[in-house]
């Protein structure tokens, strides 16, 4: 068991080494640097710890008609975005960039996921999302496309993923159209927000995902070492 764990850590380190090396060289420090946290933070009741902004519980329906909740992403790193299937402007480019995320982290055995929310649930039904996922060649073991109550979808965009500062009621005239990708860690904290239409920004996202994977691999290895 110990040998298997050590091999996994070595493999993850090799795959994430360029990102870790960049952090070390850029900072001049040999200790591991964690990604920043995005959003408001508060002091915990104990007066010592920090409580970071986190993603609220949710429940939506995916392209296969399955209920997808926040519990499906426990212990996962995931990228969230908002789109709609009939979008002809930014969404095709965003889908292309998310396919890069899918390809890059196919090796991670489910640790890295993608969660795409429709902003047009009136049109984007389960069959429509299914057709769309097949059209862009999404691996739905890794990538969910979800629909549901418009108000909940929009509340998540505004208050959980911090994609739109303008308030709205989720009514017929309310519309969110964002090009942003949001990186969520295993504890449901936002660790980065990126322009999903910009190749360089998505390159940064890919590097940051590697840094997160390395962060967890090092933490888990230290935990195993302490237990032994």
Sheet with most strands: strand arrangement? 4-3-7-6-5-8-9
The CATH class of the domain at 50-198, by name, is Alpha Beta
Low-confidence stretches: 19-31
Rg calculated over all Cα atoms: 18 Å
> How many strands, what sense, and barrel or not for the largest sheet?
7 strands, mixed
Shape: globular
**How much is the average pLDDT?**
86
Q: CATH topology of the domain at 50-198, anyone?
A: Glutaredoxin
Helix-residue proportion: 25-40%
| Overall number of strands | 9
CATH H-level superfamily title of the domain at 50-198 = Glutaredoxin
Under the CATH scheme, the architecture of the domain at 50-198 is: 3-Layer(aba) Sandwich
* Order of H and E elements: HEEEEEHEHEHEEH
Task: Characterise the protein shown here.
There is one protein chain. By secondary structure, the protein is an alpha+beta fold. The chain has a domain at 50-198: Glutaredoxin, CATH 3.40.30.10. It is built from five helices and nine strands. It has helices at residues 2-27, 91-104, 126-135, 150-160, 199-227; strands spanning 41-43, 50-52, 59-62, 67-69, 77-83, 112-118, 143-147, 180-184, 190-195. The strands form two sheets. The protein has a seven-stranded mixed β-sheet with strand order 4-3-7-6-5-8-9, sandwiched between helices. Helix 1 crosses helix 5 (199-227). The longest helix has 29 residues, at 199-227. It is globular, with a radius of gyration of 18 Å. Mean pLDDT is 86; it is low at 19-31.
């Amino acid at each position: 068991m110990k040998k298997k764990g050590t091999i996994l850590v070595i493999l993850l380190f090799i795959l994430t080494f360029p990102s870790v090396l960049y952090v070390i060289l850029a900072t001049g420090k040999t200790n591991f640097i964690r990604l920043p946290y995005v959003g408001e933070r508060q002091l915990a009741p104990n007066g010592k710890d920090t409580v970071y902004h986190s993603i609220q519980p949710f429940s939506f329906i995916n392209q296969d008609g399955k209920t997808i909740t926040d519990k499906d992403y426990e212990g996962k790193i995931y990228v969230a975005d908002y789109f709609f299937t009939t979008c002809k402007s930014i969404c095709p480019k965003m889908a292309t960039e998310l396919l890069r995320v899918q390809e890059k982290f196919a090796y991670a055995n489910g640790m890295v996921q993608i969660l795409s929310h429709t902003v047009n649930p009136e049109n984007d039904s389960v069959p429509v999302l299914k057709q769309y996922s097949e059209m862009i060649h999404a691996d739905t073991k890794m990538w969910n496309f979800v629909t549901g109550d418009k108000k909940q979808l929009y509340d998540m965009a505004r208050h959980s993923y911090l994609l739109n500062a303008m308030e709205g009621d989720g009514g017929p005239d309310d519309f969110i159209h964002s090009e942003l990708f949001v990186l969520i860690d295993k504890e449901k904290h936002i660790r980065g927000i990126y322009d999903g239409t910009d190749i360089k920004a998505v390159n940064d996202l890919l590097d940051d995902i590697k840094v997160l994977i390395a962060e967890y691999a090092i933490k888990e290895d230290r935990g195993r070492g302490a237990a032994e």
